[in-house]
Amino acid sequence: MPTKPVIRAAAVQIAPDLISRAGTMVKVLNAIADAADKGAEFIVFPETFVPFYPYFSFVLPPVQQGPEHLRLYEEAVVVPSPETRAVAEAARNRAVVVVLGVNERDQGSLYNTQLIFDADGTLALKRRKITPTYHERMIWGQGDGAGLKVVQTSVGRVGALACWEHYNPLARYALMAQHEEIHAAQFPGSLVGPIFGEQIEVTMRHHALEAGCFVVNATGWLTEEQVAIIHPDPKLQKGLRDGCMTCIITPEGRHAAPPLTHGEGIVIADLDMKLITKRKRMMDSVGHYARPEVLRLIHDTRPTAPREEWAPAIDTVAAKEPSDA
């Protein structure tokens, strides 16, 4: 059962600092303080917000992406690092659960990574997007099934997916089957155009209904000045506007507060956790409404690695020197 009857949640729609990781981190820490001052206990930031989502990869051809891609390497986040410790300290000091999207650097690769910090400052989960989408495949490596995990936090059982992972029904089902109560969703925002925001809303409302959980979704925002910096061509700039849908959805598929689709701001709503049971009494997709003898998910939770040490046992009998007899 949920740990508290009512949880105040915050979804942050915010513009990154496109110049530096340090600049974006200042915005993260200020937003945590702002949301906490408003009583938030659970705070979600946009996809790969630190240092910034790689918007350049959507509008630049691959042959021109090199300099910006290399700059993203330099500004990316290592886990652990001073940046993760700063967020952990902020979560602990304000007793809030924080879900932060980062570009994670692991040696020679970058990953779309979601970090969940519990209210005591511990890093409850580090997961990587299992399949980067379209242009993102030039930027990030792939995550694995070990990250498809629901974690117990001070506000309840929390799961997370990034962007179009929500179009993978088995990825969503993996979290549903672990009985997530609050789902953290993250999208880049300021991308594709108005249709993207419309699609996000449909997807978030559907997951809330199907999972019988709350969904807290944060999308990013770009100012007109930032759009011009990313690409000077007005035609391509159209692909860097709109597409925002920062929202909080109840298990009944309703908005818990008016969504934010333009500009910076924080959507805040109180989550009445009794609504989870109210919804699941009628339809529990992984319980009384499931048919596991007909349909079930096989989830490989083993972490992947490029190298695995394996030392076969030595046959001590065969290894003995032949006798002189």
Automatic annotation (TrEMBL):
NCBIfam families for this protein: nitrile_sll0784
InterPro entries: C-N_Hydrolase (IPR003010), C-N_Hydrolase_sf (IPR036526), Nitrilase (IPR023919), Nitrilase/CN_hydratase_CS (IPR000132), Nitrilases_CHs (IPR044149)
Entries under SUPFAM superfamilies matching the protein: Carbon-nitrogen hydrolase
Organism: Frigidibacter mobilis
Protein's recorded name: Nitrilase
Record Pfam families: CN_hydrolase (PF00795)
CDD domains according to UniProt: nitrilases_CHs (cd07564)
Domain of life: Bacteria
GO terms, molecular function: nitrilase activity
Residue ranges annotated for the CN hydrolase domain, each copy included: 7-273
Lineage: Bacteria, Pseudomonadati, Pseudomonadota, Alphaproteobacteria, Rhodobacterales
The family this protein is said to belong to: Belongs to the carbon-nitrogen hydrolase superfamily. Nitrilase family.
